[in-house]
């Protein structure tokens, strides 16, 4: 693996690399951060302040995320003000990140995007969305003719004002090919430069994603647009597959994948953008000159702080427990590796994510599953001489408890 130190690599047989069918990308992956649009549609999420949104956009930019959805200006005055301020912020700070905004396929949602774009003098990509599945058509009472008319008018409105337009079919993964064929053609003929395929309800399996992509490619090919129109994948996590599908989407040729920090978003959330970045990094698919992931943990923490969504203790990389162990067998191995002085080795003995690369640290704790080596290591780390008597005392106390000891608890036992 490209990101493993040579010493450690010799000690790991990497089945991941034996034969790769997963992400080996034909082109550099690009990302759309939906945290401050779809992310904040989650019922448990608090709307971050404008300052917090700016901070998040700055972190996205540092991580090399190419585009951010700034919101849905059609939602009202506050959304419009936020979008305008964020767009000005991007310009003033000379960030590389580009902006897009969500809009229903109605003129009243698209006009505010045109207005803000003209006011600030920067193009905003219009991401105009329409429910395209039969189940949505049934509940909303829309027929295909109506969908087609709205699609044509909305895309044309953005294009006529010189804005790039992405056409977003909600619930694409449960939509009939005949409907998609009509809608894609209508949008592309009206000048859409991008199709956004959506797994709005988190329905797709990897087969579903591939079948849909092949179908969509067929439509583009028949219009001779395969080389010019870009494809985005936007997925939700109802079945817990969003991250895996995000990785496959890149593998199979999507240009961009959408995601949210900490995987927040409607219901069970979107594809986790931080875990997508982490995985592509571990697969050696991110150019380190373009993607500074030293702030990846900070990004997840800021998402959590600003939205009020806690980070689950076992959440990969940023979770409190991601690099902690109290278990005797695990700790003993890590302690031995630490003694070699090779930190990469110590970080990899019991994790496939190297903590130190992301500014985190492997920690050894003391609990009822611990061995004496945990206690000795802990005492040394905290500046205590591990005498036999002291080790016994802490060890026996830990065995009588049902949880991992806190620093205060260990100190109280040491104090006697
Ligand atoms: C707008 C679209 C991309 C959506 O997020 C739906 C929405 O938020 O209305 C989806 O998942 O299909």
UniProtKB/TrEMBL annotation:
Keywords: Manganese
Residue ranges occupied by any Pyruvate carboxyltransferase domain in the UniProt entry: 29-297
Residues forming coiled coils: none
Source domain of life: Bacteria
Pfam families found in the cross-reference section: HMGL-like
InterPro entries: 2-IPM_HCS-like (IPR050073), Aldolase_TIM (IPR013785), PYR_CT (IPR000891)
Segment forming the signal sequence: none
Official protein name in the record: 2-isopropylmalate synthase
Annotated organism of origin: Nannocystis bainbridge
